[in-house]
Amino acid sequence: MSFSTSSKSTLDINSSSFDAEYYVQDLLRKKGLEELVAVEQDMVNNVRRLDSEMQSLVYENYSKFLNATSTVKDMQNRLTDAHNEMNSLSSRMNKITDLSDSLTEKFAKNCERVKKLNEARDSVKRLEFLIKAPQILQTCVEQNDFSKAVNTFVSIQPKLEKLKNLPSMAGIASDSEKIMEGVKKQLSEQLERRLISSESVIQAVQLLKKLEYLKMN
């Protein structure tokens, strides 16, 4: 499958038009779960590497700042009307300014790259959570924690609905919906039997309303 230039730029983390969500959807089409985990780990390593590079940049240039600043102070203390000394001072001041501008530019580039890597990593982590949704929901059901199951499903259902047409997500969306149909059935049966406390009745009604509202929307 070929991509247009604009599509490639949205997938390039170094591009100003990088799109984290589009990047994740492209990963979904091409990668399996193990590969997605590997992608996340690679992002973590990149963030750590960039952080390390930024720290090294500070350490390497800190002494330059100190030396340049010290020189300027010494020259100011010994300042005379000599024209040559004034020119030397001006030259050193310009070098400090150039060094400062250079460092600012390098920091800005690294900070932007770290930001993009973190955005992409967060998107991949959210995707991993979606992939594990059926397992998470089933665990809640087995523990009779219907409140957590419903709230979890409510939070991820819009994303599942958006991605369910992708082959890799269709089964996950379907399994999640089946589990929640079972939850809905159990909550309804609890109300019909009337063998639960008034507090549990209120909770069951509220959870069913959440599921019905989600279904209508």
Explain this structure to me?
The chain has a domain at 130-215. It is 86% helix and 0% strand. It has 217 residues and is mostly helical. It has helices at residues 5-11, 20-30, 33-77, 83-131, 133-142, 146-163, 167-193, 198-216. The longest helix has 49 residues, at 83-131. The two termini are 34 Å apart.
Please tag this protein with its features.
single chain, 217 residues, mainly alpha, 8 helices, 86% helix, 0% strand, coiled coil
Compute the number of helices.
8
Radius of gyration: 29 Å
Q: How many β-strand stretches?
A: 0
Distance between the termini: 34 Å
Q: Which residues sit in consecutive blocks of at least 5 with pLDDT less than 50?
A: none
Shape verdict? elongated
Q: What percent strand?
A: under 5%
Which secondary-structure class do the elements indicate? mainly alpha
Describe the main β-sheet briefly: none
Helix content: over 70%
Mean pLDDT: 77
**H/E element string?**
HHHHHHHH
Brief write-up:
The protein is mostly helical. It has helices spanning 5-11, 20-30, 33-77, 83-131, 133-142, 146-163, 167-193, 198-216. The longest helix has 49 residues, at 83-131.
SSE arrangement:
Elements: H1 5-11, H2 20-30, H3 33-77, H4 83-131, H5 133-142, H6 146-163, H7 167-193, H8 198-216
